[in-house]
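In this section we walk through a basic example: taking a raw amino acid sequence and producing a predicted 3D structure, encoded as discrete structure tokens. The instruction is simple. Fold the sequence below.
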Amino acid sequence: MDRSAQDLAGLQGTWQQVGFEENGDANAPDSYEGAMGALTTIEGNHFAVHARDGRLLLEGTFRLDASMAPKAIDWMDAIGPDAGKRLAAIYRLDADHFAFVAADAGMPRPRAFRTEPGQTMRVFIREKRN
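The resulting token sequence is shown next.
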């Protein structure tokens, strides 16, 4: 199994958002009301983000390329203000921790795990089910 397929397998399941940074501001308010603590479920290359109250905030698809350094992920939202736009991003995945930094549509892929203008970072931990 190649590294991208291994990472795709490792992403399957539900993740809780625990961190957010935007445009270089680690204390920026999240543009999606209720996103902090939201649950992102990944099935195959499809993602769905639900607020804790169950509201669907976002969904779409993604593509991984773990051969790049840093590892690359391209997001394609199906709903919301970025619907149909490719958002170039980088990611890191370590067992129960997942983080990505995405650039606004049309901007170059980020190079570091901190944000600059036009970039958003989200940090997740795997949601444990009892």
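Looking at the output, two observations stand out. The two ends are 30 Å apart (CA to CA). Residues 74 and 88 are 5 Å apart (CA to CA). In the next section we compare this with other chains.
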